[in-house]
Design brief:
Helix content is 84%, strand content 0%. The chain has helices at 3-12, 14-34, 40-69, 72-78, 81-101, 108-132, 137-140, 143-166. The longest helix is centred in the first third of the chain and has 30 residues, at 40-69.
């Protein structure tokens, strides 16, 4: 399955997907309320947070690709407003529900989300910076300052990698 087929399937199954994403955080909250436990609750919250993170990453990938290839005009013309607004809502509500039920240190997917945020933030900043560089750029900004900014972006990515795979910064 290619990404084009995946996004076509998302549009084709729009209504069930919208209903699922609207109800999943609240269903998770009620399941955790009905069956509280040391083992079950972190697992349920982790699955919900992982699914919301996946939807958020697909949303970011769609936006970055479309904006980079065609600009914001194509996003405005082509995209479905509900499908654009739902992944950030789903991610934010899932994070809120997870934090409300347990400390985030006890939810296994929270460490993954935090590390992924550092890693992707640092890499996106690095790639954005490298995409915007032209020869004229160095006449306004000295080379050591540019390398300093690049070092900060790569350090953020490395810290995210360490936190993601080793559990510590």
């Amino acid at each position: 399955m290619t990404l084009e087929e995946l996004f076509a399937a998302i549009v084709a199954w729009r209504v069930p997907l919208l209903l699922l994403m609207l109800s999943a955080p609240w269903a998770t909250y009620w399941v955790c309320y009905a069956i509280p436990g040391k083992r079950e609750e972190p697992l349920v919250l982790s699955i919900n947070l992982s699914l919301s993170t996946l939807s958020f990453l697909l949303w970011l990938g769609y936006l970055f690709y479309t904006v980079h290839s065609s600009g914001w005009q194509r996003v405005i013309i082509q995209a479905d407003l509900l499908l654009l607004l739902l992944p950030p809502y789903y991610f934010a509500i899932s994070l809120w529900v997870s934090r409300r039920r347990l400390p985030l240190e006890q939810v296994p997917a929270a460490r993954f989300v935090k590390g992924l945020a550092f890693l992707s933030g640092g890499l996106f900043a690095t790639f954005w910076l490298l995409d915007r560089i032209h020869i004229i750029f160095f006449s306004y900004l000295p080379l050591p300052i540019f390398f300093g900014v690049l070092l900060i972006c790569l350090t953020l990515a490395y810290l995210g990698y360490r936190y993601l795979f080793q559990g510590k910064i």
